[in-house]
Specification:
- This protein is mainly α and 205 residues long.
- The protein has helices at 2-21, 25-36, 41-58, 63-70, 78-90, 96-110, 115-124, 129-142, 145-160, 166-178, 183-203.
- α10 (166-178) packs antiparallel against α11 (183-203).
Length: 205
C-alpha cells in the first residue's frame, strides 16, 4: 500500500515534468534554472521517497544498499534519507532478515552453491554478518550443503562426464571450490568419486 502511494507520487511528478517540457523554450530555461536551485525540505523529502519507490520496485535491497543509493538523490540529506528508511521499515518494505533469507533461497534454487559463496554475496549486498549467518543457517538447514554439492557434481558430470584422470579430478575440485563449497567437503566428495571410478575400472579390468 505504501509503495502504491509512492508510485502515485512518482506518476504525478512525471506528469508535471512532461507538461513543463511542452512549454515554450523560456519555460524550459526556467525549469533548468530551478533544477540548479536547492530544493525546499518538503520537495527534497518527496524526491527521496520517489527514488526509493523506483529502486524497490526494480528489486529487493538491503537497508544499507538502499541507504547508499538514496544518498545520491538530488536534495538528499542524512535526515530525510533516514526518515524514508524508517518509514519503509515500519511498513515492512525493508527488512534485512527477510531480504537475506529470500536472496539466499533464490540463489540456491537457481543453482547449487556453497555457504561460503552465499556468505560473500550477502556481504556484498551490505547485509551485516550476524543477519547473514542467521539466514544461511535457515536455508542450509532446509537444504544441507552436502546435498547441494552432490547436485553440483551430478550437473558437472552431465555436462563434462566423469573425471577420467587426475587432471579431470583437479578441474572438478577447482570448480566446486569456486562455488563456495568448503575445502574439506570438496576433498571428501572428489576422493569418493575417484575411488568409485577406480573400482569401476578394476571391475571391467
Amino acid at each position: 500500500m505504501f509503495l502504491c502511494v509512492l508510485w502515485l507520487n512518482v506518476d504525478r511528478f512525471t506528469t508535471e515534468v512532461t507538461e513543463e517540457n511542452n512549454l515554450p523554450r523560456l519555460g524550459k530555461r526556467k525549469q533548468e534554472s530551478e533544477e540548479r536551485l536547492p530544493l525546499d525540505p518538503a520537495k527534497a523529502r518527496e524526491r527521496v521517497f520517489q527514488h526509493a519507490a523506483k529502486l524497490l520496485a526494480a528489486k529487493q535491497r538491503s537497508v544499507e544498499e538502499l541507504r547508499e543509493k538514496l544518498s545520491t538523490t538530488r536534495g538528499a540529506t542524512k535526515a530525510n534519507v533516514e526518515e524514508v528508511i524508517a518509514r519503509l521499515r515500519e511498513y515492512g518494505y525493508l527488512d534485512d532478515a527477510k531480504f537475506a533469507q529470500s536472496y539466499a533461497s533464490l540463489r540456491l534454487r537457481e543453482r547449487p552453491i556453497g555457504r561460503r559463496r552465499l556468505q560473500r554475496d550477502l556481504w556484498l549486498k551490505k547485509v551485516d554478518k550476524q543477519t547473514a549467518e542467521t539466514a544461511l543457517d535457515e536455508v542450509f538447514e532446509a537444504t544441507p550443503e552436502d546435498e547441494l554439492i552432490d547436485r553440483a557434481i551430478a550437473k558437472r558430470i552431465r555436462l563434462r562426464g566423469k573425471p577420467q584422470s587426475r587432471e579431470d579430478a583437479k578441474k572438478l575440485f577447482d570448480h566446486l571450490l569456486r562455488q563456495g563449497v568448503e575445502f574439506e567437503l570438496v576433498s571428501e566428495k572428489v576422493r569418493a568419486l575417484s575411488k568409485q571410478n577406480e573400482s569401476a575400472t578394476d571391475e571391467h579390468g
